[in-house]
Design goal:
The chain has two helices and five strands, in the order E-E-E-E-E-H-H. Helix content is 24%, strand content 37%. Strands 1-2-3 form a three-stranded antiparallel sheet, with no helix packed on it. The chain has one domain (4-58). 17% of the residues are buried. The chain has 59 residues and is an alpha+beta fold. It has helices at residues 44-52, 54-58; strands at residues 4-7, 11-15, 22-24, 30-34, 37-41. Bound molecules: zinc ion. The site of zinc ion has 8 residues, from loops.
Amino acid sequence: MKNRKTVSGGIIVAIDPICKMDVDEKTIKFTSEFKGKKYFFCAPGCKKIFDAEPEKFTS
Ligand SMILES: [Zn+2]
């Protein structure tokens, strides 16, 4: 699954794997690492859901 994309202006944004929202990697505070990959979340709630079952969202 693609979890990163480039938007207009060449800005790289990450996609929250839980709610599919675009999140700015430079300002985002909620991150998780799973199997050496970094994931970004829009809110602590999304991070919590991911941390509980990361396999579900990365397969
Ligand atoms: Zn989210």
